[in-house]
Amino acid sequence: MFYRPADGHGLPHSPFHAVVSPRPIAWISTRGAGGQDNLAPYSFFNAVASDPPQVVFGSSEAKPDRDGTKDSLGNIRETGVFCINIVEFAAREAMNASSAALPRDVDEFAHAGVGKANCETVACARVEGAPAALECRLTRIVRLAGEANYAVFGAVTGIHLRDDCLRDGRFDVTLFQPLARLGYRDYAAVREVFEMARPRRPSA
């Protein structure tokens, strides 16, 4: 099968999200200029550089009370900061609950029953007890093709690691089983890993 996205695929559901998977989930916490906290998951997310550490996430769709975008991006525009919380398998139901399209004055932490903790380097909350959290300062917002598509880049200014996720000096994802987004309504949890060494550079 081959199709051009502009022409449609003819299937019951778009396969694009299933093709580009698994995708890590950024559970993004933000705080508006007025002090209102927000928490929402985004699966178009990844690290884009390591020295210094930098991340990107994609925001699409819009809410009627947010002037062409969603609460997370609206808050980031106001304050210039955000926190990416890593989602463990045990938090899957709370993460899903926080994805509801709620009015901008509703605190998703409370709605989903998620505890809050303070960030150290930025002025917003983070998910209490998350396996890891990346405190970020906005570096740029890039407008993408499409009605409400944006790429949001951030520099990581602080990193929280839960102590019980460290084993032998390494952050071991199998200890908390990070959640990943697939296509349709599907998710996956990382329970197994394997190691491969890079090929050695040929001698001159």
From TrEMBL:
Its EC number is 1.5.1.-. Residues 20-173 form the Flavin reductase like domain. One of its GO terms (molecular function) is oxidoreductase activity. Keywords: Oxidoreductase. Signal peptide: none annotated. This is Flavin reductase family protein. It comes from Rubellimicrobium aerolatum.
